[in-house]
Amino acid sequence: MDTSINFFFEKDSKWKEEYKLLRDIILETGLEEELKWGKPCYTFNGNNVILIHGFKEYCAVLLHKGVLLKDAAGILIQQTPNVQVARQIRFTGTKEISELSETLKEYVYEAIEVEKAGIEPKMKKTSEFEMVDEFKSALQEDPSFKNAFESLTPGRQRGYLLYFSQAKQSKTRQDRIEKYKNAIMNGKGLND
To answer: What is the pTM of this model?
Structure first.
């Protein structure tokens, strides 16, 4: 057990008891415990399998390749429409976690088998993401801007495409594109 992450389990939190119970259940599966993204993450041969995190209304485990699991109990949740691979199991109390403890372990063991087999999920290509008309026009009007965007990593491209497409009004989309034009020209991602 990695003592450097004990702070996560010892700090005051609405989900303190739930976190401890989830930790105990996951550690029974033999995974390694690490600190990643400020959260307890459990790995198999260095590959992320499951992570514990909390939100205002629930705490959850995040199965990094959850889309590949069978989900026989029908408990996996896609956080947002843009999450391609990871899936959550959400909890609102220790009773619920205790009732699902065996099922949770089964899901973790299945996720370990996915890692052992080296299975990788099929990801959408950047070209499959929506490109709003305002951004298409901006790229067509400025070839250097188009080249800069195409030079970004696929993940950075997707980040911008999603961010621009989330705006409901054309004016907002145009403002966002203008705001991030220099970042794109400099090879930066949305959050760099």
So the answer is: 0.73
DSSP state of 69: S
The first and second tokens of residue 119, run together, are 């299975």
Q: Rounded CA gap, 108 and 100, in Å?
A: 12
Report how far residue 28's alpha carbon sits from residue 78's, in angstroms, rounded to the nearest whole number: 25
Note the pLDDT of residue 107: 98
Q: Please report which residue ranges of the chain form alpha helices under DSSP H.
A: 6-10, 16-27, 94-99, 101-117, 133-141, 143-151, 154-166, 170-185
For residue 190, give the DSSP letter: T
Contact 89, 77 (CB under 8 A): yes
Side chain identity, residue 133: D
The DSSP bridge pattern shows strands 47-54 and 39-44 to be antiparallel
Please give the single-letter amino acid code of residue 37. Answer: W
Q: Is the confidence at residue 162, as pLDDT, over 60?
A: yes
Model confidence over 66-75: pLDDT tens digits? Answer: 999 999 999 9
Specify whether the CB–CB gap between 119 and 126 falls below 8 A: no
Band of pLDDT at residue 118, cut at 50, 70 and 90: very high
CA dist., res. 27 & res. 11, Å (int): 20
* For residue 169, pLDDT beyond 80: yes
Give the tokens for residue 51.
């992570």
